[in-house]
């Protein structure tokens, strides 16, 4: 069974997925009208999706290639103006995607680089941008064909790592001022049935006073460091499915097959509600 260490891919794998999904996204959107709506990103059209990823990849390319390590340095970055026409937008995106992958390839994964997470390395950017490109590649495919006929598979190992990133890095991240209080007896095992990776996720409360003086007592999750899967831990609910389907479920994208819920159905539904509430938009 995989743990949060076991899902990590090699840096070469992240770069391979970053390159291929960025290329797929551009190829698919090149065939879609500029004004085609993105069903998974309300309010966006095809060009908005392209422009979004152009800005994101350009930002991380600067962080990596310029060796930025502090919030002060990063705060000086300004996005380039959005290209006016579709051909120019596509060309800029393809160029920036290649530059980002090249910058990451030329930088050791352990090199110190700024990020918004506790992981302050270039390896964080490689992992994050592989998943960013993957999810938005799916968005592009659904934009071109909302019926899913253009949808291509997501690699199971990448999807399992994406589940781990979402649960631990996004949803499981808590600021230094917060205290996390897991609620006993309210643990769900999340199971990727095709890769064998599992996660023990417990409903929790996040309490504390933020830097603005606002007091919090909010729904949260606690993700165990590992899942022994040896009978010593007894979750009261199970959420299971293929790695791709769980990955898409966490990112609120359409699944191919609905994940299965077992055990305490009310608790599993409550957990999914909390996950939806704290997931990035």
TrEMBL record:
<feature type="domain" description="Mycothiol-dependent maleylpyruvate isomerase metal-binding">
    <location>
        <begin position="18"/>
        <end position="140"/>
    </location>
</feature>
<dbReference type="GO" id="GO:0046872">
    <property type="term" value="F:metal ion binding"/>
</dbReference>
<dbReference type="Pfam" id="PF11716">
    <property type="entry name" value="MDMPI_N"/>
</dbReference>
<dbReference type="InterPro" id="IPR034660">
    <property type="entry name" value="DinB/YfiT-like"/>
</dbReference>
<dbReference type="InterPro" id="IPR024344">
    <property type="entry name" value="MDMPI_metal-binding"/>
</dbReference>
<protein>
    <recommendedName>
        <fullName>Mycothiol-dependent maleylpyruvate isomerase metal-binding domain-containing protein</fullName>
    </recommendedName>
</protein>
<dbReference type="InterPro" id="IPR017517">
    <property type="entry name" value="Maleyloyr_isom"/>
</dbReference>
<dbReference type="GO" id="GO:0005886">
    <property type="term" value="C:plasma membrane"/>
</dbReference>
């Amino acid at each position: 069974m995989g743990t949060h260490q076991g899902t990590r891919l090699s840096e070469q794998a992240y770069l391979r997925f970053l390159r291929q999904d960025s290329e797929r996204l551009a190829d698919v959107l090149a065939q879609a009208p500029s004004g085609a709506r993105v069903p998974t990103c309300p309010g966006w059209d095809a060009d908005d999706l392209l422009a979004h990823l152009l800005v994101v990849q350009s930002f991380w390319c600067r962080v990596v290639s310029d060796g930025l390590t502090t919030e002060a340095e990063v705060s000086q970055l300004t996005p380039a103006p959005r290209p006016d026409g579709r051909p120019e937008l596509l060309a800029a995106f393809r160029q920036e995607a290649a530059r980002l992958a090249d910058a990451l390839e030329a930088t050791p994964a352990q090199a110190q680089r700024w990020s918004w997470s506790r992981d302050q390395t270039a390896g964080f950017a490689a992992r994050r941008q592989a998943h960013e490109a993957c999810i938005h590649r799916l968005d592009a495919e659904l934009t071109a064909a909302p019926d899913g006929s253009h949808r291509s598979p997501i690699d199971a190992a990448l999807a399992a790592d994406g589940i781990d990133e979402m649960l631990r890095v996004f949803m499981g991240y808590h600021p230094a001022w917060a205290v996390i209080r897991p609620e006993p007896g309210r643990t769900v095992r999340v199971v990727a049935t095709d890769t064998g990776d599992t996660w023990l996720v417990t409903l929790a409360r996040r309490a504390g006073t933020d830097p603005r003086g606002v007091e919090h007592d909010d729904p949260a999750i606690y993700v165990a460091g590992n899942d022994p899967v040896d009978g010593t831990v007894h979750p009261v609910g199970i959420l299971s499915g293929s790695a791709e389907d769980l990955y898409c479920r966490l990112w609120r994208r359409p699944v191919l097959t609905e994940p299965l819920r077992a055990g305490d159905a009310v608790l599993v539904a409550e957990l999914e509600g909390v996950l939806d509430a704290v997931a990035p938009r």
